[in-house]
Amino acid sequence: MSRVSVVIVTRNRVRQLRESLESLGTEHQIVVVDNGTEGTLGSLEETFPHVRWIRLPKNFGLTKALNLGLRSAEGEFVLFLHDDTRIPGNGVSELADVLEQHVELGAVAPLLVDAMGNPTPQVCTHPPKAELVPVAGNSDIDVESVTGAALMVRGFFLKAMRQIDERYGNFGSDLDLCAQVIRRANKKIRVLQSVRAVHSASPAQSALLDADAAIGTAVYLAKYQGAAAGLKYRVAAILGSIFTFRLVLAKHLLSNQKLDGTQ
Fold this sequence. Notes:
The radius of gyration is 18 Å and the shape is globular. It has 2 domains: 4-199, Alpha-Beta Complex (Spore Coat Polysaccharide Biosynthesis Protein SpsA, Chain A), CATH 3.90.550; 207-254, no CATH class. The protein has helices at 14-24, 44-47, 61-70, 89-101, 155-161, 173-184, 207-225, 227-243, 247-254, and strands at 4-10, 29-35, 52-56, 77-82, 85-86, 105-113, 123-124, 132-133, 141-143, 150-154, 188-199. By secondary structure, the protein is α/β, with parallel strands linked by helices. The strands form 2 sheets. Strands 1, 2, 3, 4, 5, 6, 9, 10 and 11 form a 9-stranded mixed β-sheet that branches. A two-stranded antiparallel ribbon has the order 7-8.
């Protein structure tokens, strides 16, 4: 059995995925879930024969795709990695070493940097104003939540969870996973300065993605702050979209349309 499994969900980012796989090498088990890439992944399957490929016919949203990848993960430790994130194989091993040596930790993450080595937004603030901010300082830091662009969790904890909550589409599953590590497992999440990953995020925008983010936030609030908090946020998002004449967004919110394969 592999010590570490790397789970990558990809969609329409062939170049970034190639660079990510080249950086990882062949040292760990790698599972790539192709979440409905338009066209073809080209020669990637031939170039990286050690990778386990799972092809989906359309975009099922990040959360469902992650759960499909998890079912094929064999490692004692599981690294969730976005396809636009590059981390060397020895860096992955170092993350696993830290988790193995520190029982108080439930998850670890590398420091996310840009191509120039500057920290990029990584630490998540609390919903309803969920934002990403860079890590401050030059020391390892324990945080409440980080982006899922690069996050390693113990495999047995993920098996105990059974799956990531699929009420989330594209947005919210990383926040929820971090909350589960801290609240359910009573463990810490640590960002390591000694391990760095280059994150070249290029977020897309659409009414459906905005609706997905609002719905994910409402789900998170209802789960951790009570049904009233979730409902209040959802109603405010619907009214806000109507008053600003974002009628397509309002339609998605009213129909509870998130990125989960039903769109």
